[in-house]
Amino acid sequence: MRVPISHTLEKEEVRRRLHARSGEIANFIPGGMADVTTGWPNEDTLALTVSAMGKTINGTVEIEDGQVVFNVDFPPALAFVEGMVRGQVEAKGRKLLS
Predict the structure, then answer these.
(1) 19: region left, alpha or beta (phi > 0 left; psi from -120 to 50 alpha)
(2) d(CA 14, CA 18)
(3) For range 71-95, the mean pLDDT
(4) CATH 3.30.310, applies to 2-97
(5) How far apart are CA 7 and CA 64, in angstroms?
(6) pTM of whole model > 0.90?
(7) Lowest mean per-residue pLDDT among 27-31, 35-39, 86-90
(8) N or C end of the chain: smaller count of CB under 10 Å?
């Protein structure tokens, strides 16, 4: 799943906000039952590992000029929640940047 979110911020400001608020990403997962681990393999990539419902999902948040892109690798067994999670990522991803 790829979810781009537009912004008008400088990349450095996006980095600062994501560093400060990355702990809120667990709230993206409906039900509040997710454990999220984050790391920064480079200055423009936030790596995510989400454990929920007995499954592990990997993803990234890529910082680009004019947008951030949430990339989430859903296993086939969780495809049924992709639409619900997409909506949460779109809504809450905007809040992370505000």
Answers:
(1) alpha
(2) 6
(3) 84
(4) yes
(5) 9
(6) no
(7) 27-31
(8) C
* Residue extents of the structural domains in the chain: 2-97
Question: CA nearest 63: which of 22, 11, 19?
Answer: 11
- Please give the pLDDT value at position 64: 96
Degrees to nearest 5, angle at CA 11 with 8 and 16 = 105
Can you give the pLDDT at residue 56? 87
